[in-house]
Structure formats: structure tokens, C-alpha cells
Design brief:
two-stranded antiparallel sheet; kinase; single chain; tyrosine-protein kinase; nucleotide-binding; globular; 385 residues; DNA polymerase, domain 1; Transferase(Phosphotransferase), domain 1
């Protein structure tokens, strides 16, 4: 239930955590895990990496034992039967989701590279029919009563992000990220939102943040429930005091490699991210990053409104990460994602500097567009390769 924070909620599943550690004969680490790592459930423990647990005095064989005995149920999808909203809007959404037709998913989400348009439409149709049964079974509507907001952890153009607890099952409390959307585009109807949710629920990749479901609040607004990163965004990590020591060039290169696998996955599914930037890459630990905020630019506001207003310097919009064709013609393809990824690389090898710093949106467009075709300066920490 959203509202005032209940400080006792995070302790509800400590007994299960203690019991798990006792079963694998590692109960002596219980206090350290809770007090130093701030881990309050078995679901949270799965995100603790090797360095986290070794810092508590745990040996490598003990760390492997924890991972080996981690119950597989903590990686399963939500139990939808007990998570349906009681509101009229929620019931309507559930019905629409279970009875949805095989019509093509919203074109804005499946915006195809111009070279793939004809091929993509047939593949989209085939994928839609193949996944029909799966969509009918997975409703992905989470009851508002099963979400407890804990603390605000961020705010952006699309809304506010909270750390929260989700009662996924009677015996399991998961730490999740909840994005409360502060605006929805007026042209976006109920069917459009459901189509976007169906796209999100079908995305399964090691380096893309997992989408759990959507919460329909009593006032008709929406919240997206996703995987929670115990660290921060890559952008925040790059700006930290010890960034150059904690996140060496070798680590950053590995992070970028992981993001390329996520991009390749999206491209094969004919999906476009549209907002690639280090602020939308979440760091789970020193060896794992995931791409986040996929689809938010579409759900919250139409691309026409979102990107055309980018010319107004008062708005926090991603002109510095956008390709010329995306800015001028709203042409979003896998190629425009690659352009944005290049700016991500520049962010990494400057340790968080702002691309085109000090320039207005109009000045940036003039610099990168024809006939100037300017590039960002060589990053000071870039490798020679």
C-alpha cells in the first residue's frame, strides 16, 4: 500500500533470511548481512555480489554455497492471481490484456530501421501470434496494496522513482524500483498503454532491467514496477569521489560491452530504446550493468511533444545524446541508438562530463548537423585502440 512509510515492513522477512542462512550453515553472517549490507530478505540477498560477501569475512566457497542454494522461486514471474487491482480501471485493463487481439503492437515502440520495415512487420506479426498464449496468462497487473514505497531515490522528466517493497507472494518480499509516472500523453489510450506493457513484459535479457508489472492507482495514474539496482546509475557512479579507482577503464569497457549485447537483443526484436545515456544504465555491482527506462519516452509523452520541445533550453531533454535525424525528423532507428551509445562511451571515458557542455540545444544541433558534422573532443581517458 502506498502512503506513509512503515519502518517495520523491511523487517517482516528477516526470519526467512535467518532460516535460509541456518539451512546452509552460514547463520554466523546473518547480523553482518543485515547491518552492513542492508539486506532484509532472501530476494535482496541474490543481488549481493562476491566482493560484498567477502568483505564480511565469507570465503569464496561459502559465497558459492549461497548462490548455489538460492531458491529458484525468487527469480520467477509474479503470481498474478492475487495481484489484480480492485478498481474499475484495473479490472478493465486485466480484461483487455487477457482478450487482446493479434493486431500489431504500437508502431512507435516497434519503430523499425527503414531498411527493415517490410521484414519487421511480418516478424512482429509472427511474434505476436506466437506469444498470444503467454500474454493471456501473464496479466502483469500488480495490486496497489502489495506495494510499499520506502524512499524517493530519483526524479526525472517522466516522474519520480522510489525504492519500494513488493509483496510478490505470501512468503516473499522483494525490493523493487517503482516509477510513478507524472504525466501520460493525451493521445495515449488504454489500449496503447497495454500494448507498451506487453512489449515490456516480453523483454528478457541479462543486461536489461526486468519489468515486473504495472500498478493502476485509484486516481487512474500508473506506476511501473521494475528490478531494483542496489548501486546507482552509471552516471552517478562516474561522478563519485573514487570513480577512477572503483571504476577503472577495464571495468567501464566491460560495462559498455554488456550494453552492446542488450542493444543487439533489442535490434533483433526490432525495438528501439530512444534514450540511451549513462543515466539510464544501472550498476548492480562491479561486474553487472543493465539498461533501464526502455519505453518510458513513449508511455509518458508522444515523441512529437517530447522531442520537438527539446528546442526549449528550459527543459531537461536529451538533445546532447540524439542523432541529427532523430532531432530533425523524429526518425528513431537502431542507428540512432548507436549514435546515443557513442555519447555514452564519451561519458564513460570522461568520467561523467556533460557532452557539449555550455552549449544550447540549437547550438548542439548546428554543430552536429550538416554541413558542420562536428564531433565531441577525444575523451581524456579513452584507450588508444
Amino acid at each position: 500500500m502506498t502512503g506513509p512509510i512503515d519502518t517495520t515492513v523491511k523487517h517482516d522477512h528477516l526470519p526467512q533470511l535467518r532460516q535460509f542462512l541456518e539451512q546452509i550453515e552460514l547463520e554466523e553472517y546473518y547480523t553482518l548481512i543485515v547491518e552492513k549490507l542492508k539486506v532484509y530478505s532472501i530476494g535482496d540477498l541474490r543481488y549481493a555480489n562476491e566482493s560484498d560477501l567477502l568483505s564480511l569475512g565469507m570465503s569464496k566457497p561459502q559465497f558459492r554455497k549461497v548462490k548455489r542454494h538460492m531458491p529458484s522461486s525468487y527469480n520467477t514471474a509474479l503470481n498474478n492471481n492475487t495481484m489484480l487491482t480492485s478498481t474499475t480501471l484495473g479490472k478493465l485493463l486485466v480484461r483487455k490484456l487477457t482478450l487482446r487481439s493479434t493486431s500489431n503492437l504500437t508502431r512507435s515502440t516497434f519503430e523499425l530501421n527503414s531498411d527493415y520495415e517490410q521484414q519487421g512487420s511480418s516478424i512482429t506479426s509472427l511474434n505476436q501470434q506466437t506469444n498470444m498464449g503467454k500474454h493471456q496468462q501473464q496479466k502483469n497487473i500488480i495490486s496497489q496494496q502489495n506495494i510499499q514505497l520506502i524512499e524517493k531515490i530519483g526524479e526525472g522528466e517522466f516522474g519520480t522513482v522510489y525504492k519500494a517493497f513488493w509483496k510478490a507472494k505470501q512468503t516473499e518480499l522483494l525490493t523493487v524500483a517503482v516509477k510513478r509516472l507524472n504525466k501520460l500523453d493525451q493521445d495515449f489510450g488504454l489500449d496503447d498503454i497495454l500494448k507498451e506493457v506487453c512489449v515490456l513484459q516480453d523483454i528478457e535479457h541479462t543486461h536489461i532491467v526486468q519489468f515486473f508489472g504495472i500498478v493502476i492507482q485509484t486516481d487512474g495514474s500508473f506506476m511501473l514496477v521494475t528490478e531494483y539496482a542496489h548501486s546507482r546509475s552509471l552516471y552517478e557512479c562516474l561522478l563519485s569521489n573514487n570513480a577512477k579507482c572503483e571504476y577503472t577503464i577495464e571495468i567501464l569497457i566491460e560495462f559498455l560491452r554488456q550494453i552492446t549485447t542488450a542493444m543487439s537483443y533489442l535490434e533483433k526484436k526490432f525495438l528501439i530504446h530512444r534514450d540511451l545515456a549513462c543515466r539510464n544504465i544501472l550498476v548492480f555491482n562491479k561486474s553487472l550493468v543493465k539498461l533501464s527506462d526502455f519505453g518510458l519516452s513513449r508511455i509518458c509523452c508522444s515523441e512529437t511533444n517530447y522531442y520537438k520541445t527539446s528546442w526549449k533550453d528550459t527543459l531537461r531533454l536529451p538533445i546532447a545524446w540524439m542523432s541529427p535525424e532523430a532531432i530533425n525528423f523524429l526518425r528513431f532507428t537502431s542507428a540512432s541508438d548507436i549514435f546515443s551509445f557513442g555519447v555514452c562511451m564519451w561519458e564513460c571515458f570522461t568520467y561523467g562530463q556533460m557532452p557539449w557542455q555550455g552549449m544550447s540545444s540549437a547550438e548542439i544541433v548546428n554543430a552536429i548537423d550538416a554541413p558542420n558534422h562536428q564531433r565531441l573532443p577525444r575523451p581524456p581517458y579513452a584507450t588508444t585502440e
